[in-house]
UniProtKB/TrEMBL annotation:
Role, per record: Thiazole kinase involved in thiamine salvage pathway.
Reaction catalysis annotation: 5-(2-hydroxyethyl)-4-methylthiazole + ATP = 4-methyl-5-(2-phosphooxyethyl)-thiazole + ADP + H(+)
GO molecular function term, any single one: hydroxyethylthiazole kinase activity
Enzyme class: transferase
Protein name: Hydroxyethylthiazole kinase
EC number(s) stated in the UniProt entry for this protein: 2.7.1.50
Pfam families listed in its UniProt record: HK
Keyword field contains Translocase: no
Organism annotation: Carnegiea gigantea
Pathway the protein takes part in: Cofactor biosynthesis; thiamine diphosphate biosynthesis; 4-methyl-5-(2-phosphoethyl)-thiazole from 5-(2-hydroxyethyl)-4-methylthiazole: step 1/1
HAMAP family, sorted: Thz_kinase
Similarity remark: Belongs to the Thz kinase family.
Length: 288
């Protein structure tokens, strides 16, 4: 019996399912973020605190750098999402991170992990693996960090900087997503996002962003803010945040003389993003 749908109708249905209207989705996330201004608790490294807070404010979220272990029981239940970054880790901070992550999970709040330099030492790797056990909604790292975490092995990294392209970490990212049930994102020339099955690439950004410290930390915080907007669509939120931050970098680099002015111009560009710019610049597509 002949199918009542024409081939083109079928194709367009399949197309819709596999490849949503990404630029429109990115804009919807950013607009909703600006309307709702979610409160994001950040337990992040000393290097990144300023740029992370300014990234969140420019995007429309409300950051709070609250990290005392004695404070999280009162504070974490109030937030819309929690962001944890192990960049300048010590025992004291780790205790607060674990307590906050457990409270977030218990209260049904999304939380996002940035496993900075995960493969650099046994202490750091164990800390990250313990945090993964506390069920992050999203894990975002560079290629070397995601490979180290996925293999649970020390090595293959240059501190906070990656020794791998993001695409080198594709299988590691899928495997980590499957074992942790988190959405896993790998930043780089192409930003990869996977839930362990589907994989998409976000193609925004400029190479000079690697020369501004803590841009990775900032985009992970932005992911937390996007996920706060719609925790039931963490995959789409993650891709949208990566694309948005990349677009801000693309606009910012045109006004920059080097990394220091890129830092300023990226934040200004993020603040000024409008619908036309997002729809014209967002580049997200499936990756196999
Ligand atoms: N070659 C590139 N081309 C375009 N964008 C890039 C490139 N490399 C990195 N980026 C962008 O720069 C940002 C930071 O990514 P990166 O992989 O450098 O993170 P990171 O190593 O964790 O950084 P940090 O630890 O300093 O915060 C992301 O938004 C990413 O998309
Ligand atoms: C350079 C550096 N070292 C620890 S955290 C950090 C910021 C970038 O991740
Ligand atoms: Mg990093």
């Amino acid at each position: 019996m002949e199918n009542s749908n024409t081939p083109s109708e079928c194709e367009s249905e399949i197309h819709q399912e596999i490849q949503p209207q990404w630029p429109q989705k990115v804009w919807e996330f950013l607009s909703k973020l600006r309307q709702t201004s979610p409160l994001i608790q950040c337990i992040t490294n000393f290097v990144s605190m300023d740029i992370v807070a300014n990234t969140l404010l420019s995007a429309g979220a409300s950051p709070a750098m609250v990290h005392a272990a004695d404070e999280v029981a009162d504070f974490t239940p109030q937030v819309h999402a929690l962001y944890i970054n192990v960049g300048t880790l010590s025992d004291h901070w780790l205790a607060a991170m674990k307590r906050a992550a457990a409270i977030a999970a218990h209260n049904g709040k999304p939380w996002v992990l940035d496993p900075v330099a995960a493969g650099s030492s046994g202490f750091r790797l164990r800390a990250c693996l313990d945090l993964v056990q506390l069920r992050p909604t999203v894990i975002r790292g560079n290629g070397s960090e995601i490979i180290a975490l996925s293999r649970a092995a020390v090595g293959g990294t240059k501190g906070a900087d990656s020794m791998h392209d993001s695409v080198d970490a594709l299988e590691a990212a899928k495997s980590l997503a499957q074992s942790s049930s988190a959405i896993v994102a790998v930043s780089g020339a192409v930003d990869i996002v996977t839930d362990g099955q589907q994989v998409i690439g976000a193609y925004n950004g400029v190479p000079m962003m690697q020369k501004v410290t803590a841009t990775g930390c900032s985009v992970t915080a932005l992911i937390a803010a996007f996920v706060a907007v719609d925790p039931t669509h963490a995959f789409e939120a993650t891709a949208s945040a990566l694309s948005t931050f990349g677009i801000a970098g693309e606009l910012g680099v045109h006004m920059a003389k080097g990394p220091a002015s890129l830092r300023v111009n990226l934040i200004d560009s993020l603040y000024g993003l409008d619908e036309e710019t997002i729809l014209g610049h967002a580049k997200i597509s499936p990756l196999s």
